[in-house]
Amino acid sequence: MILDTLPNATRYISLHPFFADVLRFLARPDLAELEDGRYDILDNNRLYALVQSYDTKPVEGGLLEGHQNYIDIQFLLAGRERIGWAPFEDQPVATPYDPPRDIAFFHGPSRPVRFHAGEFLILWPSDLHLPQRHFADTAERVRKAVVKIKVS
Question: Which residues contact residue 100 at a Cβ distance below 8 angstroms, ignoring those fewer than 6 apart?
Fold first, then answer.
């Protein structure tokens, strides 16, 4: 997992051939005004973004999620949230991997990551995460872009 701010994003371009495309998308001057939904950046599901608006949820009762085929780059446009993070190794499975949805859910402890507007997270398939959680003790409105990068 990598947590940083958008002005530092160029440091990570060499980590993946599509990171430059991701950066161009996240630097769009109209990004904050885009409607919620899916935005294809490259064809064939290789690179796309999901723009989302939601209210955060309590940490209790949430399950860690993991992906096998996509890297997540989550960019917080507005608001703040807590995301739980845990390594993939030895986590008890709650819901087995669903290939069409590229997701599995896991029980287990996670470390809290405090996520603020203007920051991004790079989450590899080895990074389990529990997104959309209360930053403090109450719900907050969040707006986020999640860019999905196909790994193979």
Answer: none
pLDDT tens sequence across 1-27: 999 999 999 999 999 999 999 999 999
Full DSSP string of 83-131: EEEEESTTPPEEEEEETTTTEEEE-S--EEEEEETTEEEEE-TTEEEEE
In the block, residue with structure tokens 């996509």: 70
What distances in angstroms separate CA 131 from CA 36, 41, 73, 139, 147, one per listed residue? Answer: 17, 23, 12, 13, 14
pLDDT digits (tens, 9 = 90+) for 14-66: 999 999 999 999 999 999 999 999 999 998 889 999 999 999 999 998 999 99
Say how many domains are in the chain. Answer: 1
- Nearest Cα to Cα of residue 52 among 139, 137, 131, 138: 131
CATH of residue 95's domain is: 2.60.120.370
Find the domain containing 43 and state its range.
Answer: 2-150
Which of 79, 82, 99, 66 is CA-nearest to residue 144?
Answer: 79
CB atoms within 10 A of CB 121: 22
Say which residues have a Cβ less than 8 Å from residue 46's Cβ, sequence separation at least 6.
18, 149, 150
Calpha distance 123→128 (Å, rounded):
8
